[in-house]
Write a structure and sequence with these properties.
The structure holds two protein chains of two kinds. Chain A is an alpha+beta fold. Chain A is built from eight helices and 20 strands. In chain A, helix 2 packs parallel to helix 4 and helix 4 runs parallel beside helix 5. The relative contact order of chain A is 0.12. Chain B is mainly alpha-helical. Chain B has one domain: MetI-like fold, CATH 1.10.3720. Helix content of chain B is about 80%, strand content about 0%. In chain B, helix 1 runs parallel beside helix 5, helix 6 packs across helix 7 and helix 10 runs antiparallel to helix 11. The N and C termini of chain B lie far apart (about 45 Å). Classes of the chains: A alpha+beta, B mainly alpha. At the A-B interface, strand 6 of A face helix 6 and helix 7 of B.
């Protein structure tokens, strides 16, 4: 298939009632990468995904994907004519078919010239070779979900929809399947719409975030920006963190560290981050960042100290303060959240626009190399 | 005696496939429609289970008789009215055995739920394609039960046939009528053979249904 000139992505608006629940959403999804629909349970994420697939039809809706109208006031493309891959919460494999039969179900129903995703590639990517001859009933939870993902991919979708594909799995199966999802993230040319209520999962996998609450879209945009937006509730969570894209510069095997560059400075991260130039994703918990007033501190055991500027601050309960920073001497770098005590904030006399040093106690690499 | 056995097997053999064909769309609609009429139609289909066979036979006799519109139509098409003919027995048997086929098929469709059909739809299968390649194979145990019960129930019919078919050797004199006849004419030995055969047959049928039900377990993982 000829490469798309420009990834257009998806533009959607759905309004209507479903039982006692009212949904009114409008959002855009970029033509590449993973977009997470994130929000508490019951906020309508799954309904939105079902509307995109055409499985649920609300009173009014409009949807176009790559410039093609799937739904508006007059048209409604039925689900089986929409080129989506849908991965449900439970794998929902067909029990009357073998693993191969399941994988080929969608493949057989797409026209030959539109098949850029090959059977062998999917088997490879998802590690399915050992499973092909096994009966579906004998698979573990993680294996079933991998087959379900492969089955969806082989239907040659132009959009992959995933409804909390990890939530029905136990810890072990989750850890088993996440690397495959990250491999997908790195290889897939098509946009992915990923429903989740687990922020850690979103931080690992998503590029764009659509934040939902009670049937409405609260905000949407790049993940890193929304995580550290003082106008949104994400920074208030106990596990609030910043996610930063980094480029590997060098490795220091002697100390078991790697040096990476982020917009606004360089950081040491634990472990081997991959070869020079590889792109990695870092997570820095707000509670692991403290502030230092004045020039660069010397004599600290903390390796990662970066100049930054305070862009905003919000009290968090009685005792804590969330401080929003822009990294770099010119404050043009990545956004970072620090959580300090309100007492320190007052005693050190911090204020908006102040130049400070962010002392980062711990940095985690959250994607697989 | 052999004539009656052969006729009974013929009747059940013709009735069962027609029964399955008629029951499948009804069961599908009953299992999947959200219409408020499902319970009404469901009750109507179940009626032959509760009604005395003579009542059913009586109304069928009237409905299919040469003076009714249906009877006139059948005279125009087949050259004869349906009562007291093999064809009439088939029609009566299909109606009489309907609940025994509709119920297991409906249950099997309900057990499948929406999910497999939604999965099929997201994998480009049209509604008809999903029905054939997902719903039918998943409901197979229900169809097996329906076929076995429908066949057996037709074999054991008595009241309806007596009302609408009478006792014409080779045309409407089926097993149960033959047994009745033998007893009436004090040919107890022949009655014994047929009756004992029916007991064995009934046992085998129930055993087969139980085994099918056990087989249904794989559907629920």
């Amino acid at each position: 298939m000829a490469p798309a000139l420009r990834p257009l992505g998806l533009s959607a608006a759905f309004t209507g009632r479903l039982g006692g629940f009212s949904l009114d959403v409008r959002f855009e999804v970029p033509g590449r990468g993973v977009t997470a629909l994130f929000g508490p349970s019951g906020c309508g994420k799954t309904t939105v995904l079902r509307c995109v697939a055409g499985l649920t039809r609300l009173e009014t809706g409009s949807l176009s994907v790559d410039g093609v109208v799937w739904q508006d006031g007059r048209h409604f493309v039925p689900p089986y004519r929409r080129p989506v891959g849908y991965v449900f919460q439970e794998a929902s494999l067909f029990p009357h078919l073998s693993v191969t039969g399941n994988l080929r179900f969608g493949l057989r129903r797409t026209k030959a010239p539109e098949r850029p995703v090959a059977f062998a590639d999917v088997v490879d990517l998802l590690g399915l070779a050992r499973l092909l001859d096994r009966p579906v009933a004998g698979l573990s939870g993680g294996e079933r979900q991998r087959v379900a993902i492969g089955r969806a991919l082989l239907s040659q979708p132009r959009l992959l929809l995933m409804d909390e594909p990890l939530s029905a799995l136990d810890r072990v199966s989750k850890d088993e399947i996440v690397p495959y999802l990250e491999a997908l993230h790195a290889t897939l040319e098509i946009p992915v719409l990923y429903v989740s209520h687990d922020l850690a999962e979103v931080e690992r996998l998503a590029d764009t975030l659509v934040l939902m609450d009670q049937g409405r879209v609260q905000a949407s945009g790049p993940l890193a920006r929304l995580l550290s937006d003082p106008a949104l509730p994400l920074y208030r969570r106990p596990d609030a963190a910043s996610v930063i894209e980094a480029t590997v510069i060098a490795e220091d095997p002697g100390y078991g560290l790697s040096l990476v560059r982020v917009t606004g400075g360089t950081l040491f991260v634990p472990g081997r981050a991959g070869g020079h130039g590889s792109r990695r994703r870092l997570r820095i918990a707000a509670s692991d960042v403290s502030l230092w007033r004045g020039g660069a501190p010397s004599g600290s055991s903390i390796l990662n100290v970066l100049p930054a500027r305070i862009t905003a601050a919000e009290p968090l309960g009685v005792s804590a303060m969330s401080v929003f920073l822009a990294l770099g001497g010119d404050a043009d770098g990545e956004a970072l959240i620090a959580r300090i005590t309100r007492k320190s904030w007052d005693e050190l006399g911090f204020w908006l626009g102040d130049k400070v040093h962010a002392m980062i106690k711990s940095v985690a690499l959250i994607d697989e190399p | 005696m052999w004539e009656a056995i052969w006729l009974t097997l013929q009747l059940a053999g013709v009735t069962t496939p027609i029964l399955i064909l008629v029951s499948t769309p009804i069961a599908w609609w009953l299992a999947r429609s959200r219409s408020r009429w499902t319970e009404v139609i469901g009750a109507l289909v179940t009626l032959p289970l509760v009604l005395p066979p003579t009542v059913l036979g009586f109304y069928l006799l009237i409905a299919l008789g040469p003076n009714s519109p249906l009877g006139q139509a059948s005279i125009a098409v087949f050259g004869q009215a349906l009562p007291f003919s093999f064809e009439g027995l088939v029609v009566a048997s299909v109606i009489y055995s309907l609940p025994f086929a509709v119920q297991p098929i409906r249950n099997a469709f309900q057990v499948i739920g929406d999910r497999p059909l939604e999965v099929a739809a997201t994998l480009r299968a049209s509604p008809w394609d999903s029905f054939v390649s997902v719903a039918l194979p998943l409901a197979r145990p229900g169809f097996l039960t329906a076929a076995v019960l429908g066949f057996a129930h037709t074999v054991g019919e008595f009241g309806v046939i007596l009302m609408i078919g009478g006792n014409i050797p080779g045309e409407t004199k089926v097993l149960s009528i033959a047994i009745y006849d033998y007893v009436e004419t004090l040919q107890w030995a022949k009655a014994h053979i047929l009756a004992a055969g029916m007991v064995v047959f009934a046992f085998l049928v129930i055993l087969a249904v139980n085994l099918t039900d056990k087989h249904l377990g794989w559907l629920r993982r």
